[in-house]
Amino acid sequence: MNRKQAALAATMLIDAALINLAFILGYTLRYSLQLFYPLDVRYAAPFRPYIPFALLLTGASLIAYQVGGLYEDKRGRSWWDEISVLTTGTAVSITVLMAVTFFIHPLVYSRAMLVYAALLMVALLGTARLIRRPIEAALRRRGIGVERALIVGAGDVGRAVMRNLLANPALGYHVVGYVDDDPTKGNSEIGRFKGLGGLDNLSDIIVKEDVAEVIITLPWHYHRKIRKVIEKCERHHARVRIVPDIFQQRMKQVDVYSLGGIPVIGVHQPHISRAALATKRIIDIIGSILLLVLSVPLMLIAAVAIRINSPGPAIFRHRRVGRNGREFHVYKFRSMIEGAEELQEDLEILNEADGPLFKIRDDPRVTRVGRFLRRTSIDELPQLFNVLRGEMSLVGPRPGTPAEVAKYELWQRERLTTWPGLSGLWQVSGRSNVPFDEMCQLDIYYIENWSLGLDLRIMLQTIPYVIFRKGAY
User: Fold this and answer.
1) The domain boundary residue, chosen from 96, 125, 141
2) Tell me, what's the pLDDT at 40?
3) Are residues 257 and 210 in the same domain?
4) Distance CA 383, CA 422 (A)
5) Strands 393-395 and 193-194
6) pLDDT the model gives residue 425
7) Phi and psi (nearest 5°) for 455?
8) CATH number, domain with residue 170
9) Which of 422, 260, 269, 441 is nearest to 355 (CA)?
């Protein structure tokens, strides 16, 4: 028995225990508490005659849940989808039990008790799955219970899959890399995703990397290549998922639904309402004002410490590129010695960042006070004024310098289509430890999936990252 089979067996055993618990509680409500019945010994009945019914209900329910797909590995399935399967399966199993009692006419029998048991089954099994979700997500973020996956294709759709997996580590995928029919793409890297060569290497990679799932993102007109990829995967018992490119449409422009069992794909234009944008702006204004008021004492202390520690102004202005390529001056507490920009060229050999970024973990230009300000993110507080001016938002992509933006590839420039932010998915995913391509992927995912709920989630996740100084230097 492998790990997946053991996990499935454990899940079914827990479900069986909860079904029997629901049955016992239903019996208690009906006979011990006599819910909706007058307290009278005449309404009492022993539990022993109900034991065969409990066993029958358990077996019928587990079969119904299995047929409904409850025990299939469907990553990304919502809790409400599970509740739907639980409700349907429970209704079927209770109906089967009632049909059996109709034919055998047991001496001890209560329809009310079965109704109580059915409601409690959905409640208990649904609650168990609600509790399990955050536990599974936390384990998957730590690499426990993840599926080893390989992406086939590194085009627009392939990168869309990559950024979705980056932004949702709770889905539980460890991508070993990608292959592509273009040798240039297949032998390069996209952030942490490594190119493992061309499609000819697929069989060897599946075996060598112990790949459990292959995600195909090739264009639809490559149907012959897709067929060959599927055949190789089936030969090595690797599960296959195919992502339709819909003629290179963005994932948010695609609706997938069922028409009587037939999968139907629709295309729509994404639209963010003016009311939603206005709400985001109102949150930015209110949030920045509150943070400024709360941080005034801290900012005064920081300004004094900077002036005492090294000569030069406390506030540093730096030109950055914002929404739609418009340049603006970002405000930060000065964390380096005066004239640090002129020294950057001499330090290029020490650059630890990839892409157009320039970062050194132990940058010799950073002052003693500046190092503390960076690790605690206090140096970013003056950017609240940029938020008030409408040049930035509380949440958004990291603003790049004109020199960095000039080196962007075409797909990376998509991160300039929204306001830059104080925090973003890149910050709650590792900050300075995130490779540049990966940061762009996360920013584009944020833009394509933007919502007020996503902004709120990022703001809440930013707090522990700042407190524990994760990825800050």
Assistant:
1) 141
2) 47
3) yes
4) 7
5) unpaired
6) 86
7) -60, -45
8) 3.40.50.720
9) 441
Beta strands 213-216 and 239-242 are parallel
Same domain assignment for residues 151 and 279: no
* Residues 461, 337 share a domain: yes
Question: Looking at the structure, do residues 135 and 236 belong to the same domain, yes or no?
Answer: no
* Neighbour-count burial of 12, counting CB atoms closer than 10 A to its CB (0-12 exposed, 13-18 middle, 19+ buried): middle
Length of the chain counted residue by residue: 473
Supply the pLDDT for residue 41.
46
CA distance 313 to 377: 18
Q: How far apart are CA 229 and CA 153, in angstroms?
A: 11
Q: For the segment 180-199, what is each residue's pLDDT rounded down to a tens digit?
A: 888 777 778 887 788 888 88
Last residue of a domain, one of 141, 175, 193: 141
Taking Cα atoms as reference points, which of 388, 391, 266 lies closest to residue 319?
391
Whether residues 137 and 192 share a domain: the answer is no
Calculated CA dihedral for residues 158, 164, 167, 173, nearest 10 degrees: -80
Instruction: List all residues 6 or more positions away from 238 whose beta carbon is below 8 Å from its beta carbon.
Output: 150, 206, 211, 212, 213, 214
Which of 25-29, 129-133, 354-358 comes out lowest in average pLDDT?
Answer: 354-358
Closest by CA to 57, choosing from 103, 15, 29, is 15
Q: Are 148 and 176 in contact (CB under 8 A)?
A: yes
Whether residues 396 and 412 share a domain: the answer is yes
Helix H or strand E encompassing 264? strand 262-267
Domain of 159, in residue numbers: 147-267
Query: Burial level of 261, CB count in 10 A (0-12/13-18/19+)?
Result: exposed
If one counts the domains in the chain, the total is 3
Whether 473 maps to a domain, the answer reads: no
Q: Are residues 180 and 248 in the same domain?
A: yes
Q: Which range among 83-92, 154-163, 185-194 has the greatest average pLDDT?
A: 83-92
Radius of gyration of the chain (CA): 29
Q: Does residue 345 sit in the same domain as residue 436?
A: yes
